[in-house]
Write a structure and sequence with these properties.
The structure holds 2 protein chains of 2 kinds.
Chain A lengths: L6 E4 L8 E7 L3 H8 E2 L13 E9 L2 E11 L10 E7 L2 H13 L3 E2 L4 H8 L5 H12 L3 H11 L2 H25 L9 H31 L1 E7 L5 H9 L17 E7 L2 E7 L9 H16 L2 E7 L6 H10 L4 E6 L9 H7 L4 E3 L8 H13 L14 H22 L7 H16 L5 H13 L2
Parallel strand pairs in A: 1-7, 8-10, 8-11, 11-12, 12-13
Antiparallel strand pairs in A: 1-2, 2-6, 3-4, 4-5, 5-6, 9-10
Helix pairs in contact in A: 3-4, 4-5, 5-7, 6-14, 7-13, 13-14
Chain B lengths: L4 E3 L2 E4 L3 H12 L4 E5 L13 E3 L3 H10 L4 H8 E7 L9 E6 L1 H13 L4 E5 L2 E7 L2 E7 L4 E3 L2 E4 L8 E4 L2 E3 L12 H7 L4 E8 L2 E3 L9 E3 L24 E5 L2 H9 L5 H4 L13 H7 L7 E6 L6 E5 L7 H8 L10 E3 L2 E8 L16 E3 L9 H19 L13 H11 L24 H12 L4 H23 L1 E2 L3 H9 L9 E2 H6 L20 H12 L1 H19 L16 H10 L4 H5 L6 H22 L1
Parallel strand pairs in B: 1-10, 2-3, 2-11, 3-7, 11-22
Antiparallel strand pairs in B: 4-6, 5-6, 8-9, 9-10, 12-13, 12-21, 14-21, 15-19, 15-20, 16-17, 17-18, 18-19, 23-24
Helix pairs in contact in B: 1-10, 2-10, 2-12, 3-4, 6-9, 12-13, 13-16
Cofactor (chain B): FAD
Pfam families (chain B): GIDA, GIDA_C_1st, SAM_GIDA_C
Family (chain B): Belongs to the MnmG family.
Chain lengths: 458, 632
Amino acid sequence: MNTQETIAAIATGGSNSGIGIIRISGEEAVAVADRIYRSPKRKCLKEVESHTVHYGYIMEKDEILDEVLVLVMRGPSTYTGEDTVEIDCHGGMLVMERILRAVIRNGARLAQPGEFSKRAFLNGKMDLSKAEAVMDLIQAKNEYALKSSVSQLRGALYDKITGARQEILHEIAFIEAALDDPEHISLDHYPEKLGAKLRKLEEDLIKLKDSFQNGRMIREGIRTVIVGKPNAGKSSLLNLLLGEERAIVTDVAGTTRDILEENMNLSGISLNIVDTAGIRTTEDQVEKIGVSKARAYARDADLIIYVVDSSTSLDESDEEIIELIRERKALVLLNKTDLDAVTTEEELEKRVGHPIIPISAKEKTGVENLEKALKDMFFHGEVSFNDQVYITNVRHQRAVEEALDSLKLVEQSVRDQMPEDFYSIDLRNACDALGAITGDTVGEDLVNEIFSKFCMGK
Amino acid sequence: MPVVEEYCDIVVVGAGHAGCEAALAAARLGMKTMMFTVSVDSIALMPCNPNIGGSSKGHLVREIDALGGEMGKNIDKTFIQSKMLNVSKGPAVHSLRAQADKAEYSRSMRKVLENTEHLQIKQMEVVELLAENGEITGVKTYSGAIYHAKAVILCTGTYLKARCIYGEISSYTGPNGLQAANYLTDSLKKLGVKMYRFKTGTPARIDKRSIDFEKMEEQFGDPEVVPFSFTTDPEDVQIDQVSCWLTYTNEHTHEIIRQNLDRSPLYSGMIEGTGPRYCPSIEDKVVKFSDKNRHQVFIEPEGIHTNEMYVGGMSSSLPEDVQQQMYRTVPGLEHANIVRNAYAIEYDCIDARQLDPTLEFKNIKGLFSGGQFNGSSGYEEAAAQGLIAGINAALKILGREMIILDRSEAYIGVLIDDLVTKENKEPYRMMTSRAEYRLLLRQDNADLRLTEKGYEIGLISRDRYERLIEKERQIEEEVCRVEQVHIGGTKQVQDLLMELESTPLKSGTTLAELIRRPELGYQVLAPIDPGRPDLPKDVQVQVEINLKYEGYIRRQLKQVEQFKKLEKKKLPPDLDYDQISSLRIEAKQKLKEYRPVSIGQASRIAGVSPADISVLLVHLEQYRRNQEQSGR
């Protein structure tokens, strides 16, 4: 029951690309590959050196499926820790699927989502935060998310958390040592020192906790809502950004009654855009629902894009929208700059504190300015993932929050002038919470959670 | 040659603090018990410090008492000074320590043993263990006599191949010049037991008449003594107490030590055994804490009827002449006459990882062990293990389930788990920091934690158990009551709060809320609580602790809940670790070698990583599911 079945899957994304990789992992990996691989020199893969590349064909009966390179890597120095074979083939979906089917017919079974990582984890090839980063990597929708996952994989999060955890451990050790050897280790003035240290640690953890918001936006995209009066050009803007006609565009105000949701990628930043029915007082039942939905979306959004028709004047509905976006992250797009301006940039500036970007959805101008404004707003002008650690995982966020709560309780104990031996209860909790991220604290709940996540797929 | 041949249930080898508890527990559980000692006159001997208890050790004594052991009762009968330590800290680290009259302690314990039914004391050296097919069958003595037994408990202390050393002088004796036991080690080795060699030491004893106490600080006992045993009437321990004395070493002392380090057997390589880091000799302290210009020295009486004084904090194995010079640099000891020299002692003990948490050898069924033989140090640690070994040997013979206390239940649990799970390269000493859940494992609630267990085992009387139930009820009721007592801002209340330097009330509150204020407590609020029932002091203490530290206790209970989850995951004894392919090789080796009883214990083995534990968890889960499926 402990012998692991051999598993296989297409390791590259599910779209057409230049090259595709089929990965096979498990005891039988090399044997399975041997059954479908033909070398011009009649080589047998089971006889080749580990970590070598071999040219040849993938055959099904007498038919050549593809001309390929085969990488043979024997465990434990592989990603999963098991014997692994990778078949580099031509990237067409059809070819890849046919090769995968051949692999499966010859003794492997289709891998469950995340199963390679699960095995890597089980074989001690990665700690929990790395395993989770892999999950994020698989789920990553854009290149920034990819980079963030990669940096987590390399252990930036791990290093950060481990650092904080070590500091807490150090304090625990000091208190315990002083309790056991009061003659040589004094706790005089220690509470004040600890207090200062706690505040510093809390600051670091708060930064990490807050990064979750960014982390989520990176991974899942920025929840964006486009609002504006009817016929201000919201749908045209959406179409412009998407580069295709998705929303019905007419010059009759109130055409968009449904909420349109789109995921789009603007120079690497992922936006989940919701186009809403224009906000205005309406008697039409269908449109009414759309309007109230739009308001609800606007409340939950990371970003509100407020489209203003520069060819008309601001009215009551605009007032309502300006109220809605006050204190929120928002961009104001002054649309229809191709027409004569009735509402000017200067006029708007007096009313809203948000960046104002003139565009013309019709003429397709101003998009670059929009992109720049987005980057400024969300990633401080520079999307750099090398020196910044993002938390992208809910479990990690919860653990950091738990650690923070515990540290605050320690601070409270210091303020209440509790005896020092009380500090260690909550310090230990903080330490364990952080350990749950790095895998240093083993809880069965955690393991269960991780594995259910692995098996549920993405 | 015809030899004596006898049958009994349990043989206990050794009559020190472990041996005494083991023999008493076994005999009290109805086992025909034979206790062997090299000298009946040295039963329950205290060859080192003249006190029982102290930081975290006091907890052990109270736990021993709650389980039905003897140590607490015996020190209550024979103490000459008593003190609750660390009262300025939290209740978790309060610890009771009593100075013993050594001779009285020993005599009193001997009297108890001699009058215990089913127990026979025998002065004779045990030289060989008799075993068949990995199961113990009895022992053989130096005289050739054979004692057949169903279980044997080894409590040999520091006697196995003992050697006492100071300077260039060494003698092959046990402590106090008593006869060493030189044969048993070989018998153990033949049975495949892995042995270690440890060392420990003791300071000199000085003639009281040669000490100038004027130069020292007098250390008094507590005005109101708290007894160790939950069965002792507090009235009975309010006695006239003797004093101890505090003085300090100085640079001059340290200079003498440094100059003569090359003559210390520790540094010359004459001693090979490993000494305790937490009970260091004065040489070690001077070397390790070279920045400290003084160390504490406690002068403690060895008893009422002797002039010998123990020099606490200055154990040593330096040569006699250096010892004399060194001690005489200490203020008050300028003219000190040494009665007994300080010495180090080396002895054989075992790697306790060969034991199950029941203290039975994994590979020799029916063989149990406790005390310094298991690599611990200290009277209290020894007694605790002796008690558990005695209980389990008896339970096993009775066909009952043996007991294991876990780390969240008792310091005894922490002690034994550490001994049998972790590699101890030096004598193991109990310390507060070793207990993760110490707020729950207080000395004041040892009876609440363990009396029921003691009753189930059969060492606690029905009467005592019922008294405990009553105590629990009183605590619960009183906590409930004060939660509901409403306190308004009357003049009487405000005046009392002002007097106690507490903020006056702005609006009404409950009595419980006031008790929770750091500067207030249960007792000081009595004047504004007219409906208060007349409750025993120990009940009042529990009520206050439960209220005051409620939040901390709740959080610690949560930690215990997490801990128990892994503790409850039992590892099948026949689990084939080689079959779990994803375990690292080092982890496989350690797990095969130590066969932990639970995932929790496995997680504490050095060399088993958190990743290995995840693997084990997943494996167990798969195993469980497979069992379930095949069961369907």
